[in-house]
C-alpha cells in the first residue's frame, strides 16, 4: 500500500519541531484536518529516537516471555482505579460505554480480549504508584521504562502546542504539566485465524478515554478504525515504519466540542502476511494445520490532562455567547477518566 492509500494522513512533524512560525502553522493545520476527518494521524520525524522505540519493543518481548508466575510478581491490582502492573489474558476487557455491572460481567465472559499487558506511569504519580517486578527478575526493565516515558511525554506536549496553534488559543501543554500519563506494553499471543474470523477481536472496539494516545506498533498489523463517513465500515490502518500513530481520545473530543473525533478502533485479523500455518499441534488452540496469526506487540502511550483541569468547549470550538452550541457537559479530567476506567476491570 502506498502512503496515499492509507485512511490515516501522514504528517511530517519535523517542521513543527524545527520550523519557523509559518511552517509550524502549516503542520498544525494538517494535524487539525486529520483530527477533524478521521481522528488519527501518522507522524514522521516525531523526535522520539527510533532506537528507544526499538529497545522498548525488545523489553516488551522479553517481559512477556517470562514465565507467568514471574510476571505475576507485578500484579495489576483488582479494580480499575490503580492501573499499573501486569494483566494476564482476560483480566482486562475493553468495552464501549457499558457501565451496567451485570452486562459487563457477561461481556467479560463471552468476549474476552486476547491480550496481556503491562502498565507503568510517571514516577511522580502518587495516585497510581508503579508496580515493577523485582529487579532480579528482569534487571534493567524498570530503568528503561522510566527513561522511555519522558520521551513520549515530550511528544505529547509538542502535540498539544501544535493543537493550540491550530485553534489560536493559549498553549495547552501546561494543562498536561504533571504528565500523569500511562505507558502500556501490549502483547497479543498467537491465535487461530478461525477465532478472529468468528468475530472475536484481539482488542474489542473502543475509543480511548484520555486526550491523546501515541500508538507504537510492530509490523504485524490488524488495527482497524471505524470509517468516519460510513457507519459500520472498518478501515485497515497499516503500520508505518518509523512513524507513530496519534489519536484523539474522548476527553479531547469533548474539549474541542466535537471538532476532533475520538474514533472507535479495534484489533482483528491482520493482512495475509501476518498469518502462518501451524504445523505441530497448534499454539492457537486448534489442531495441526490450522492457520494461526502470530504474536503482535504494540505500545500505546495514553495522555490525559492534569486532574483538576475543567474540560469544556475551547475557544473557537463553539459560538461565543451561545451556550447552547456546547455539545458536552463540563467535566473535570479526573472525573471522566475514573468513570471510564472503572468499567474496564471486575
Ligand atoms: O494494539 C493496538 O494497536 C491498539 C491498542 C489500543 O487501542 C489500546 O490499548 O487502547
Ligand atoms: Fe485504543
UniProtKB/TrEMBL annotation:
<dbReference type="Pfam" id="PF14226">
    <property type="entry name" value="DIOX_N"/>
</dbReference>
<dbReference type="GO" id="GO:0016491">
    <property type="term" value="F:oxidoreductase activity"/>
</dbReference>
<protein>
    <submittedName>
        <fullName>Clavaminate synthase-like protein</fullName>
    </submittedName>
</protein>
<dbReference type="GO" id="GO:0046872">
    <property type="term" value="F:metal ion binding"/>
</dbReference>
<dbReference type="InterPro" id="IPR050231">
    <property type="entry name" value="Iron_ascorbate_oxido_reductase"/>
</dbReference>
<dbReference type="InterPro" id="IPR005123">
    <property type="entry name" value="Oxoglu/Fe-dep_dioxygenase_dom"/>
</dbReference>
<dbReference type="GO" id="GO:0044283">
    <property type="term" value="P:small molecule biosynthetic process"/>
</dbReference>
<feature type="compositionally biased region" description="Polar residues">
    <location>
        <begin position="119"/>
        <end position="130"/>
    </location>
</feature>
<dbReference type="InterPro" id="IPR026992">
    <property type="entry name" value="DIOX_N"/>
</dbReference>
<dbReference type="Pfam" id="PF03171">
    <property type="entry name" value="2OG-FeII_Oxy"/>
</dbReference>
<comment type="similarity">
    <text>Belongs to the iron/ascorbate-dependent oxidoreductase family.</text>
</comment>
<dbReference type="InterPro" id="IPR027443">
    <property type="entry name" value="IPNS-like_sf"/>
</dbReference>
<keyword id="KW-0408">Iron</keyword>
<keyword id="KW-0560">Oxidoreductase</keyword>
<feature type="domain" description="Fe2OG dioxygenase">
    <location>
        <begin position="179"/>
        <end position="305"/>
    </location>
</feature>
<keyword id="KW-0479">Metal-binding</keyword>
<dbReference type="InterPro" id="IPR044861">
    <property type="entry name" value="IPNS-like_FE2OG_OXY"/>
</dbReference>
<feature type="region of interest" description="Disordered">
    <location>
        <begin position="113"/>
        <end position="132"/>
    </location>
</feature>
